[in-house]
Amino acid sequence: MIIKEIQAKSILSKSQIYDYALNAYVGCQHTCVYCYAKFMKRFTGHREPWGNFVDIKINAPELLFHEVKKKKIGRVWISGVCDAYQPVEKKYLITRKCLEILVEHGWPCTIQTKSPLVVRDIDILKRSVDCEVGFTITTADEKIRKIFEPGAPPIAKRVEALAILHAEGIKTFVMVAPLLPGAEGLVDLLKGKVDHVLIDRLNYHYADWAYKKHGMQGAMDDSFFEQKGEDLGIAFEEEGIVCSKLF
To answer: What's the number of domains the chain is made of?
Structure first.
């Protein structure tokens, strides 16, 4: 893994999902084979495969401190094209420092991660007027998880973190995206731990080889996403969990 410290020119960028996106890192150690952020590599100068490098925006907290005073307040998506709580965050604390600045200045934020490391920052999250934490969990089958998300934390660890956050009164959600085989088991796993769930299909073709290698071509078809998405949405609603299908 190539780890490099870099100086960023800005840290809050316009987002098509929320008002702003904040990405403290470039690259991700989770090596999810379907990762839509792989396009970022062409802006980095790296020759290493995506997943084999992480650039640390070492001056991100300093930049953010000044930008929150100049920009119009809006919801910040942490992160968007990296995982804010990937393993390097344990050492560098860039996300924690940025989160603290946002909370101190009253900015709302939405965290999306696959890492239970976010639980470390409960003390900051509980001071926020409007922060939510979402975990990406694409399947309830650990064997499937290992195929598509080899470097990411186990499903059980993510669910445990959700339970802790939810019990502390922090708003939580799960993004089932891309919807993978075995996702139907998530209904029982997530009961009482989330405020809402989002479901989306596979929208990129980076993972085609993995589906084919493991004989799961059928799970790439439109019919799979339509039927499984519908069934999963109904199952969540029956348990009183608000569910939105994004396709």
So the answer is: 2
